[in-house]
Design brief:
Chain lengths: 178, 355, 499
């Protein structure tokens, strides 16, 4: 009787202590999934999701505070990647995939106020005060921040069109193979 | 000009329906011989089974919301129905054929996703389900009564046998060849006494023995098999692997105890073995993709068949053997793959010493 | 000569008889030439002429940019009428940078580099330089800059030059005709190339279905007693013209995955490239025209034509009296690996070996059925792949799984799709997957770049903020110091007053 109790208590104590030690010494700093998620996000901290930057948004996603369809620049592609990563079922059918876009500045409307220039998270807009601004397509993530701040509505988002360098064959029609 | 079409812009002209037609042509000798051997009831059962297969296909397509025409015209349903008919006792009642066709098409094929998606051979599923569900109807064989001879039922008697379950007809009902051998061996009769008389090897090879409609004549089946090989519809791998494995196993055991174990010749020409080797084990959908995989598959089918025939309760084990090996196909295909050009079997680029 | 077997392959309907009997014809100059700047693998050429310039035949219009590129020369004399975007000879039909030129009809040669009198006496590098200056690219369709291939001499230990004269694509007969009609020049070009690579022997590989070409080349070799050129009759089987498979047929050696044939000591050049190299070396003429097979059931007249680069395809078709019926497909290249073209306004480029107008009975449009796992594609694949399995993965967007079983080892020869009884567009699945993977990589690269930019910006903002704060602090301190000083002064003043 006493023997059995001793064994069980001993076992319980040893295992519990082990777990406690493991929890203390092997603790993982930060949320690892949040870091992985952050790697997927555009990383431009545009703030359209409502968080202050992409790492905050990644934390939010990891905690489940926000749905996967939260990032306009990332679009549907990112949403499905996030759903995969988080292992959640997400109905993305309603989410329209506008595809990648980049900013475009109408020359005759731009007053050269430099507001967009200051806000652009990737420095994709070049120009100077009272001079026409231009967009460096390769650096633009289509985050739409500039569109919002432009006082004259001179900026619009245009879908990125295929070029000879980027075009590839479309996926074939699957025919009768369901 | 049409919309953007990717290459190649030439085609061999092969098609699924062409393949299926070739299989049907190859089945014809054995079928005609079956009709001749077993008379009008066999013809009616055959027609009912094939019609039911087409009806089942149409029904399943409608249920799945798939277009009827391309799938009905691809010929796969006809092939399935035809093969089921070939494996039935020739005087079985009509509903056996209908039930078999529906099981094959609806359950074994369309429940898995339709053409090309089934894991198990539909005809073998049908045969096995029927055998387990209706053991009496499925094991009532008869000694051949060649058409237009005295013993053969006429057109209307044939109708009665197939559709009215006419049992009064005094055909000599008997067990199939393998069943007979199994029973006799079970009674302690040595092999050489069992095989003899009406069960001579020649008779078995020609198919003048009790058995299913289309699988008794080894000669007629071989003829079809050669046609399939010659037209490159099938490859040699699975049939050869099956025949060699069966011959080796049967020979080995006969050498151990000639009185207890029938030899290779009996195993090869009896039952559905050759039929399965050329028409079932070569089914594209349910066999491995590579030559090596097909060899493994064929050898496995033959070995399982031998085991079931020799030690299990059923006289014929090929249906089970095929289904068991079907289940192993994804595994075989996963591990047995061709070597990629410029790479070793393990997938690493080839290395040359001098570079 | 001993041949080695290759795996897989198919025997498509050759249909070479449509044009094989037709001698090479020259085509009259069109009223406009449209010369794309991207006619080769690598970076597009950079224009060195301007709109309105008068140019002479053979003059450089655009020069090579970077190590893998090729210069482009004026196919005739005339005036540059535009430099801009124009629909490219590409399945997408998207525009690319194009020089438009209006021939003046005089066809006057400009100043050409001096002919190399005895090519066998000069250093190989001299020939390589000439080849680069002449804008020569692989003319079998791959359009890889030839000078780069000549440079492999410095990187690998080479033993053999293989001349690809297999011409395994159905319909095409341009190489066949060139070998028959210009056999002397072809052999000369091959020997120059052999010298330029510094190898002992050259093997010309011709498929058995071209006995006349074989005989013509043999006659030249035996008449001149050339010991350094061997002529090999390779089996007629598609894709014999695939570089790695041709080398294996001839040498028995398999090129390792992701490596070049040069890594096993063999360099392969197309036979038409050899001719172009000879023209450049012996006469200083750059690559400004090529031989094109025009064929197909929808053509009124078929044949082989020497066409200036930049000739609109419509001009070539008109020269062949147009179509006898509406073609089902219009292709640049052969039926197996050729590309459909969106418009006949696009032009013949350096890699265009054929223009095919196929009618429906030649390219039956078929209903795609589900895969029945017949594994015909597995037996047909010359690369040891399982095409049906790869396509299955790609259909479900499992691109990584497709890569794992060898997608990137696929040479897109089309043998699998040719045999497929279910008519599954396997090649398009693979092209789609390869393209999508590249696009994904590009997107990932861009994401990394933009992240870096954001970081820079944040650091800069931080710096600016700090600088501002520091400035503010400094100003405050200064102000305070000033105040203090003033207060001091005031007090001192008051003290002096008080005193």
């Amino acid at each position: 009787m006493i023997e059995a109790m001793a064994v069980l208590f001993g076992l319980g104590g040893a295992l519990g202590g082990g777990l406690g030690l493991a929890a203390y010494y092997l603790r993982v700093e930060g949320n690892p999934i949040a870091e992985e998620i952050e790697g997927l996000l555009p990383g431009t901290n545009c703030g359209q999701c409502g968080y202050l930057g992409c790492s905050a948004a990644a934390e939010g996603l990891a905690k489940g505070e926000i749905g996967v369809a939260m990032c306009p620049p990332g679009g549907k592609t990112l949403a499905s990647q996030l759903a995969d990563k988080l292992g959640v079922e997400a109905d993305l059918s309603g989410m329209k995939d506008k595809g990648p876009v980049t900013a475009f500045i109408f020359e005759d409307l731009c007053t050269g106020c430099t507001k967009c220039l200051k806000r652009c998270p990737t420095d994709a807009i070049v120009g100077a005060s009272r001079q026409m601004h231009g967009v460096v397509d390769d650096a633009c993530t289509g985050c739409e921040v500039c569109e919002e701040v432009c006082p004259t509505g001179a900026i619009t988002m245009r879908p990125v069109t295929d070029t000879l360098m980027t075009w590839h064959w479309p996926k074939p029609d699957t025919g009768l193979a369901a | 000009m049409s919309d953007l079409v990717g290459g190649p812009h030439a085609h061999s002209g092969s098609s699924i329906s062409r393949t299926m037609v070739l299989v049907l042509v190859a089945l014809t000798p054995a079928t005609l011989f079956g009709f001749y051997e077993f008379g009008w009831p066999a013809v009616f059962l055959f027609l009912v089974t094939v019609t039911a297969a087409i009806a089942a296909e149409s029904f399943a397509l409608a249920l799945g919301g798939k277009p009827q025409k391309p799938f009905l015209l691809d010929g796969s349903a006809v092939v399935t129905g035809w093969i089921i008919a070939m494996t039935l006792p020739p005087w079985a009642p009509w509903w056996i054929g209908v039930v078999g066709s529906f099981i094959a098409i609806v359950l074994a094929k369309h429940a898995f996703g339709g053409l090309g998606q089934n894991v198990f051979n539909p005809a073998m599923i049908a045969r096995t389900v029927l055998l387990i569900s209706f053991p009496i109807e499925m094991t009532q064989f008869l000694t051949p009564q060649p058409m237009f001879t005295g013993g053969s039922p006429g057109f209307f008697e044939g109708l009665e046998i197939t559709f009215a379950g006419h049992t009064a007809f005094d055909a000599v009902s008997s067990a199939s060849l393998l069943g007979a051998i199994k029973t006799q061996l079970g009674l302690g009769v040595p092999v050489n006494e069992v095989v003899g008389g009406s069960l001579s090897l020649t008779a078995m090879a020609l198919g003048i023995v009790p058995g299913s409609m289309g699988e008794t004549s080894a000669v007629a089946i071989l003829l079809g098999g050669i046609l399939l090989l010659a037209t490159r519809t099938i490859t040699w791998h699975a049939p050869v692997a099956m025949i060699v494995t069966m011959a080796v196993l049967a020979g080995l055991f006969q050498a151990i105890d000639p009185g207890r174990y029938p030899g290779p010749a009996i195993h090869l020409v009896s039952g559905t073995f050759l039929f399965a080797a050329f028409f079932i084990a070569t089914d594209y959908v349910t066999a491995p993709a590579t030559g090596m995989g097909k060899l493994i598959f064929g050898a496995g089918v033959a070995a399982l068949t031998f085991i079931i025939r020799t030690w299990a309760a059923y006289p014929e084990g090929i249906g089970f053997a095929i289904l068991l090996m079907n289940a192993a196909v994804p595994l075989i295909d996963h591990y047995v793959r061709p070597r990629i050009y410029g790479r070793t079997r393990s997938g690493e680029p080839i290395r040359y010493e001098e570079i | 000569m001993k041949m080695f077997r290759i795996k897989g392959g198919i025997h498509p309907d050759e249909r070479k008889d449509l044009a094989a009997g037709k001698a090479i014809e020259t085509v009259p100059l069109p009223s406009l030439l449209r010369i794309p700047l991207q006619q080769h693998i690598g970076a597009p050429a950079v224009t060195v002429v301007e709109k309105g310039d008068e140019v002479k035949k053979g003059q450089v219009l655009a020069s090579a940019r970077g190590p893998v590129s090729a210069a482009i020369h004026a196919p005739t004399s005339g005036r540059i009428s535009a430099i801009g975007r124009f629909v490219a000879p590409h399945p997408s039909g998207l525009p690319g940078q194009t020089i438009t030129m209006r021939p003046d009809g005089k066809d006057e040669w400009g100043e050409l580099p001096a002919p190399i009198e005895d090519p066998f006496a000069v250093e190989p590098d001299v020939i390589a330089e000439r080849v680069a200056a002449s804008g020569i690219v692989g003319m079998g369709g791959a359009t890889f800059p030839s000078a780069v291939k000549l440079g492999l001499r410095n990187r690998n230990k080479l033993e053999t030059l293989v001349i690809n004269a297999a011409e395994c694509e159905p319909y095409l007969t341009c190489d066949d005709r060139m070998m028959r009609e210009r056999s002397e020049a072809v052999i000369d070009g091959i020997r120059i190339l052999r010298h330029a690579l510094g190898v002992e022997r050259a093997i010309i590989a011709i498929e058995g279905n071209k006995p006349e070409a074989l005989a013509a080349l043999k006659a030249v070799c035996s008449a001149n007693q050339f010991k350094d050129v061997l002529i090999a009759r390779v089996p007629t089987r598609y894709p014999m013209g695939s570089e790695k498979h041709l080398v294996q047929t001839l040498t028995g050696k398999e090129t390792p995955a992701r490596a070049l044939t040069a890594d096993i000591g063999v360099v392969v050049h197309n036979v038409a490239t050899c001719y172009a190299i000879r023209e450049a070396v012996r006469f200083g003429r750059p690559l400004i025209s090529r031989i094109v097979t025009v064929s197909g059931g929808a053509m009124k007249r078929t044949g082989n034509f020497e066409v200036p680069i930049g000739t609109p395809i419509s001009h070539l078709i008109d020269h062949c009296d147009g179509f006898n019926k509406e073609p089902d497909r219009l292709l640049l290249g052969g039926p197996m690996m050729g590309q459909p073209i969106a418009s006949t306004r696009t032009s013949i480029v350096k890699g265009s070996n054929g223009v095919l107008a196929l009618c429906p009975d030649e390219t039956p449009a078929r209903q795609t059925m589900p895969c029945i796992r017949c594994a015909s594609c597995v037996s047909a694949c010359p690369c040891g792949l399982t095409p049906f399995e790869m396509a299955g993965h790609i259909r479900k967007e499992e691109l990584d799984a497709a890569v794992k079983i060898g997608l990137l080892d696929c040479i897109a020869c089309g043998s699998c799709a040719w045999v497929c009884p279910a008519s599954i567009p396997l090649v398009q699945y693979f092209n789609y997957a390869k393209g999508k993977l590249t696009a994904q990589q590009r997107a990932k690269h861009k994401q990394e770049e933009t992240k870096r930019l954001t970081q820079f910006r944040e650091e800069r903002m931080e710096r600016q903020k700090r600088a501002k704060q520091e400035a503010m602090a400094r100003m405050k301190a200064e102000r305070e110091a000033k105040k203090k000083a003033e207060a001091e002064k005031k007090r001192a003043k008051q003290e002096t007053i008080g005193a």
